[in-house]
Model the fold of this input.
Amino acid sequence: MFDLFDDNPGRLFLLATLLPLVAVVFMLSAAVVRHLLRPQVSSTKWSTLLYWFLGGDHPLKTGGYLTVATFVAAAAVSILGLVRFYEDLEAFRGSPAPFEARWAERFQWIHVGPSKNEPPATALHLGYRIDRLSALMVTMVTVVSSLIALFSLGYMKDESKDLVEDHAAHVQRRGRFGRFFLYLGLFVFSMLNLLIADNLFQVFVGWELVGVCSFFLIGFYYERRSASTAANKAFIVNRIGDAGFLVAIAILWATFGTLNIQELIEKFHEGRPAALTDSLWLIMGLGLFLGCVGKSAQFPLHTWLPDAMEGPTPVSALIHAATMVAAGVYLVGRCYPLFSPDVLLVIAYTGAITLFLAATIATVMTDIKRVLAYSTVSQLGYMMLALGVGGWTAGLFHLLTHACFKALLFLGSGSVIHGLHHEQDMRKMGGLRKKMPITAFTMLVGVLAISGTPFFSGWYSKDMILADTLGYGVVHKQHALLYLIPFFTAGLTAFYMFRLWFLTFTGKPRDHHSYDHAHESPWTMTVPLVVLAIFSLGVGWGWPAWNVEESILAHQLHEAEPSTLHHFHSEQHAAHVAHDYAGWLGLFLAASGAGIAAMIYVVGNPSKVLASKNGPLGTLFARKWYFDELYSLVIFRPMMLVGACSAAVDKRPTIGEEPVQSPIDVGTLDGMLNAIGQLMSKLGTALRASQTGSIRSYVLVLILTVVGALGMLAVLTR
Amino acid sequence: MNELGLTPFLVLSAFLFACGILCFLTKRNAIGLLMGVELVLNAANINFVAFARFVPGFQLEGQVFAVIVIVLAAAEAAVALAIFLNFYNNHASVDVDDAKDLKG
Done:
C-alpha cells in the first residue's frame, strides 16, 4: 500500500482530502439502506439486525464517531505528508522538476476539441499540487477541524436524542446528529479539495461546495426563521462574489487557454503578459478579488458572516477558523502574481475598511458569538490588508495563527453557551470563571493571542502585519491611512476581546438562574480547548522566542513567497526597519485597549455600563453602521416593489382562503393564450372543408398547381 | 427517308396525357377512370420509346422502362378491377362518388 505513496508522496494529501468523504458516503448510504430496510424490519433476522446496527429509529450516532475518526486520520495523514514534504525539500534541493513530479499530478477531466493549451482552452483538468503554502494549510485545516469535530460530539449530544425540543422555534423534531456530521464531513472535504487543487476550476468547485455546505449548516436549525434567513443570506451574498470569480476564470480561460494556477503564475512572472490588455487585467483581478471578498466576508459583502452565527457553535468555529473564510485569503495568496498593482491597492483598502468597521461593531455587541464573528471579520481585514501592501508572508501567517486562536475562542464560547444551556447574551453572564475554569483559562489564552500579547502566536503574525503596513506607509506617504487604521484597530481588538472575557468570566454573576445551572463541559469539549490553547500559544514560536522575526512558521511561509513580490522590495526594507517601532507601538496600543476594558468592566460597574444607553456613536456601531438597512433600502426594497407590482398584475390580494384572479389576469394574460387556442381551432374547422375525400378534386388541384408552376417557370425563364 | 424528329411524338404524348387527365377528372364511372389512367400511362410509354429512338445513350433504358410500364399497367388494371368488382358486389354501383363509407 505504501508503494502508492513512495513515488508520489503528494497523494498523502489527496488521501487526507478524500478521507472525510468516506464518512459522508457511509452516512448517505447508511441512510438509504435504513430507509429501504424499514418496511422489512422483523421479516428476516438479518434485515432486523442490520437495521438496528444502522441506528434503527434513532439518529445515526455511528456516523458522528466515524466522521471524527476520519478527520483524525486525515490530520495524521497530512502531518505525515508535511514531514515527507520537508524531507523532500531537503532531498531535492536544486532539482525542481523531479520534486514537482512527486508533489503534483493531474489528469484530463473534460476535453472538447483538438487543440491543447491554445486559447480558448478545450480541456479541464483535475489535479493536485502541493507547495509550502497548501501543505501547511491542509495540515492546519485537518488538525483544527478534527478538534472541532471532537468538540461537536459533546456539543451536539442533545441532537442524538430521538426527540429534540427546539426552544427558539417552539417545535419538537427528530434529532439530527448524523446529519450534522454528514454536513461537517462534506464541508471539510470541500475545503481540502479547494486547498490542494492545482487549477482554478477545481478551486471553484470546492468554493461552491463550501458555500452550499455553509448554507446547510447555518440553516441547521431551519425551523427557526432567523436561521433559515441567515442561511439564505450567506448563500446569496456569496453568489455575488462568485459571479466575479467566474468572470475572472472566463477571462483567464479565454486569454491563456489554461486554468492551471502554476502555469498562469509563470505567465505573469514578468508582469503583464502581452496577451492580456490592461483593462482586462484589471477586470480579471477585481473579479477574482470579488470572489474572495464574498467568501472572506470583506466590506461590502461582510454582512453575511455575523448572521451565520445562527448555526451551531462548532459550525461557527469551522466557518470562521479553518474553512470558508480562510478560502478567500488563501486564494488571494495563491493567485498573488495574477493581481495588478491597482488591484492590490484595492485589496489593501478593502481590508483596512473592513478591519476598522468590524472592530468598531464588535465593541458594542452583547451576544458572545457576534463579538467573535465581528472580530473574525476584522482579522480577515488584517490579512487582506497585509496581502495588499505586499506582506504576503504576514497575511498568510496570520491566517494560520488566527485559525488556531479563533477556533479556540469559538469553541470556548460554545462551551460557555453549552454550560449555560444555550444562553448567548453576555449581559446574563459574569463570574463564570469559578464554574468553568478550563474554559475560562483556555479562552484567556485565545484572548491574549488575538490581542497580540508577546509570546502568543497572534503577536508574531500581527506584529508582522503592522510592520508591513508601516513600511508601506513610509514609502507611500499618501496612503497613511493604511497604517493608521490597523494600529488604531489593534487597540480596539484588545479592548473588545478583553471586554468579552471580563463580561463572561469575571465580576459578579448578573443572572443567578443561569449561573446556578452553569457547569463545566465534558472532556470531549475541554480536550480540544486545551489542545487549541497550546497551538494558540506555540504555533508561532521560533528561536529565540522573544525575537518576533524568528518565527519558524513565518520563515517557512517566507520561503514560499511569490517572485512578483520583488516589486515591494523598498516597502519590505522599510518594514524591516520599522519592525521595532511597529512592535512597541502595537503592544502599547493593545495594552491600553486591554487596560481601558479592565477599567470599565472590572474596576467599574459592568452592569451599569451595560444597562446605560448607547450614545450616537454607540448606536451607529450597534446597528452595524446601518449596512443591513442600506442594503435593504437600495436592493431589497426595490426588488420587493417590483415583485409587488407583478403580484398586483397577476393576482389581487388574497380574500379569504382562495386567491382571486384579477381582471387584468383574466382579460390580458389568459385572454391572449385563449385567443391563440381558439384561432387554431377555428382554422382547423375551416380547413377541414377542403378535405373532401374525392380524389378527382385533389388531382384537379394538383394539375392546376403543376400547370401554374410550369407557366410561372416559363414566364420567369423567358 | 424523311425524318419526323422528336417533337411530333412529344406532342402526341402530351395530347394523350391531357386526354387521360381530362377523362380522369370528368368521369364518375370507375371503368372510365381506369381508362383515363391507361391513357396517361401510355402517353408516358410513347415518351419513353420516342426518347429511346432519338436520344443517343437512351436506347436500352427507354425500351426497358416502356416494358416495365406495360407490366405495371397490367398489374394495376387487375388490382383496380378486382377492387371495383368487390365494390360493385356491395353497392350495386360503379360510381366512385358512392365510395364514401369511410368518410368521417
